[in-house]
Amino acid sequence: MERLAELGIPSSAIDLPFTGYADDVECVRAAIAAARSRGEAVHVVCHSYAGLPVAEVGHAAAHLTFVAGRLPLPGESPAAQTPGWGDPRFRACMRRGDDGAVRLSPAAGEFLFHRTSAPLADLALSRLRPMTSAVPCTPVSDPAWTSVPSSYVVCADDRAVRPEAQRERAALVGASVEIDSDHSPFFSRPAALADFVADRHRAMVAA
Q: What is the 3 state secondary structure string of the chain?
């Protein structure tokens, strides 16, 4: 976000509640509506799981950018795609508690942040939150990316989500880039990520 500001592009971030998929969907819907109410052309950048709620309700945005993001096809069960999406070694880091929430073990760091500086990776690990939201079995009937101009960022050294799976989804949208990063390029390659987002944002404004 600091890099985008340096490029003259203001931005804001939202935290999904992770209390259920429907709650995450409503959070995205509300954030887009709030931005549109200010007269803004909305460019939504989403990462990993967040691609699903964005695909569900991102139709009012002017552009969508998926970063190693789930990009559901019409009629496709996202949950059915999960085994081929993520690295099974990363999934082994997920622990479901008695409260139904999934928490990541410390070993997840080597899959999420292995190209990130150690101090920043430690900070990120300390801020991981439990997640009750589940990848839905029900297909996203009208994914927003099929009607809203969209872009994709492939994280080429991702150990959490298979880069090959990302490339398959990237081929479905209008513009894409590969960044030599771990699963978290906003930490490990922030300038490269911001530059691509800025390029797509300028194209959106000019359209």
A: CHHHHHCCCCCCCCCCCCCCHHHHHHHHHHHHHHHHHCCCCCEEEEEHHHHHHHHHHHHHCCEEEEECCCCCCCCCCHHHHHHHHECHHHHCCEEECCCCCEEECHHHHHHHCCCCCHHHHHHHHHCCCCECCCCCCCCCCCCHHHCCCEEEEEECCCCCECHHHHHHHHCCCCEEEEECCCCCHHHHCHHHHHHHHHHHHHHHHHC
> For the chain, what is the mean pLDDT?
96
Q: What is the mean pLDDT of residues 51-59?
A: 98
pLDDT at 40 (0 to 100): 85
Residue 175 to residues 27, 93, 192, Cα–Cα distance (Å): 26, 32, 15
This prediction's pTM: 0.96
Query: Tens digits of per-residue pLDDT, 80-93?
Result: 999 999 999 999 99
